[in-house]
Design a protein that fits this description.
It is a single chain. It contains seven helices and six strands; from the N terminus they run ββαααβαβαβαβα. It has about 210 residues and is α/β, with parallel strands linked by helices. It folds into two domains: about 140 residues, Ribosomal protein L4/L1 (Ribosomal Protein L4, Chain: A); about 50 residues, no CATH class. Strands 2-1-3-6-4-5 form a six-stranded mixed β-sheet. Helix 2 packs across helix 3 and helix 4 crosses helix 5. The chain is elongated and about 95 Å long.
Length: about 210
């Protein structure tokens, strides 16, 4: 498929042929939903932790004798039935939320994500991003966003690490810069408007286009 290439002022400079396998694939929403579930699960740290009866401090002494008091028998004041006692079936930090995926599945998810963004006309190819380090970086970033119609959310995909580019968008809440080798399908489908540097297309074709 053909796509327009813009400069950072959103002026069309040329057209380019994109890999249909990556940018013009029939989108399978089930694959994207499954990838999103796995990705978010892998972000979980499992910090929530409760103590059961055996882990709560105290409660070693039997509260009262077994018989003759008229009260229900009790063996420990740290029973889950008591205030200050342990928790039954509560979350523990030893739960492993990590889920494994295959390389083929991740590649398929990325193809679906990029095709989805392209079909929704949220994908823009930019020849290169030039920022003057001697001028106000944030103002330059705002001007770039304005040039592309001031979308509510913008993700810049850079071919290589560019400190000036990263710093220029650092103070903008709805914009961020991602290196192409750190991009994943979840970020693509939540990118808003995706501005991909033209040099990054080589990486995309090498990793997801064959």
């Amino acid at each position: 498929m053909k796509a327009k290439v813009y400069n950072q002022k959103a002026e069309e400079v040329k057209s380019i042929e994109l890999n249909d396998l990556v940018f013009n694939k029939d989108v399978n929403d089930k694959v994207l939903a499954q990838y999103t579930y796995i990705y978010l699960s892998n972000q979980r740290q499992g910090n929530a932790n409760t103590k059961d009866k055996s882990e709560v401090r105290g409660g070693g002494k039997k509260p009262w004798r077994q018989k003759g008091t008229g009260r229900a028998r009790a063996g420990s004041s740290r029973s889950p039935l008591w205030r200050g006692g342990g928790v039954t079936f509560g979350p523990t930090s030893n739960v492993n939320w990590k889920k494994l995926t295959t390389k083929a599945f991740r590649k398929n998810a990325m193809r679906n994500a990029l095709s989805k963004v392209a079909k929704e006309n949220l994908l823009k190819i930019v020849d290169e991003f030039k920022l003057d380090a001697d001028k106000a970086l944030t103002k330059q970033a705002v001007n770039i966003i304005k040039s592309f119609g001031e979308p509510k959310k913008v993700t810049i995909v850079s071919a290589e690490k560019n400190e000036a580019l990263i710093n220029s968008f650092a103070n903008l809440k709805k914009a961020k810069v991602v290196l192409i080798n750190e991009l994943n399908a979840y970020e693509v489908i939540n990118a808003g408007t995706l501005l991909i540097e033209e040099k990054a297309l080589e990486y995309i074709n090498n990793h997801w286009g064959n």
